[in-house]
Design brief:
Length: 88
Amino acid sequence: MDGRPAGHLANASYLRLPLTAGSHLLQISPGGAARVSTVQIQVVAGAPAFYEFVFPTGWAMRPSLDGAAIEARAEAQAMTGLRGLRQM
């Protein structure tokens, strides 16, 4: 987050990041040969925001995670997805 490590995402997990209002750079570095995914986000005070790291799976998956992205999610969609995950 903003050029500094903010935590570790294991498979089937999520991070809750308390951020100040304003612009922030969110970056996910999967490691190995995988490409880094980056998105600029705008945080509004008192308004939760949800983002998901998505990438191709199955036959479309490559070690470099081509096609991976950080995507915004609506709160209802995010809460549904979070039910099966563990907080890191």
